[in-house]
Amino acid sequence: MKRVTLAGVLASLAAGSAAAAPAPLLQHWDTGGVRAGLTAAGATDIRVADADGLPMITARTRDSLGVAIYAKACDVGPAKAPLICHGLESIVSFDPGAAVDRTAIVARLNQTYASGKFIVVPDGTIRLSRYVDFDGGVTPENLRAQLTAYFTLAGATARSLWQPSGAQ
């Protein structure tokens, strides 16, 4: 008969609970965490960059659309203090072509798709943006889900603006 000790049972429970421990919440911008979320959402060609001293990441969606992810709502602190950013903004831009009513397109897109914001920017392109607030914490799974939904919306937008050759 095998003898079971209390220490053995506790060690087994500790090992099991450590394996089942959830991933830590993202409480603010974390380049590694955002990069992992992009990878989990199917993004490719992921590149870490800098935009006016703030972190950003560029990538390609599953539909090969270019996306830029910017750190937002950043606390300005003393020099050499760690930068804390409380959100991120995802941006995909579309150029619907010449001689189209961009304002009407944006109104239709905002009416059709509620999970992002469409605007006409001064260069004439249409921008789709989505904001994620890290305050209170975001699970890696939730960030992946939000980015996946955003990429799906961007793909649907692209298909609504540019029908493939031969499409009716």
Q: Keyphrases for this structure?
A:
alpha+beta, Yope Regulator, Chain: A, single chain, about 170 residues
Write the layout of secondary structure elements.
Blueprint: H1 6-19, H2 31-40, E1 44-51, E2 54-60, E3 66-75, E4 84-94, H3 102-112, E5 117-120, E6 126-133, H4 140-161
Antiparallel strand pairs: 1-2, 2-3, 3-4, 4-6, 5-6
Helix pairs in contact: 2-4
Task: Give a short overview.
With 168 residues, this protein is α+β, with helices and mostly antiparallel strands.
Textual characterization of the structure:
This protein is an alpha+beta fold. The chain has one domain: Yope Regulator, Chain: A (2-Layer Sandwich), CATH 3.30.1460. Helix content is 34%, strand content 29%. A 6-stranded antiparallel beta sheet has the order 1-2-3-4-6-5. Helix 2 packs across helix 4 (140-161). The longest helix has 22 residues, at 140-161. Mean pLDDT is 85; it is low at 1-7 and 164-168.
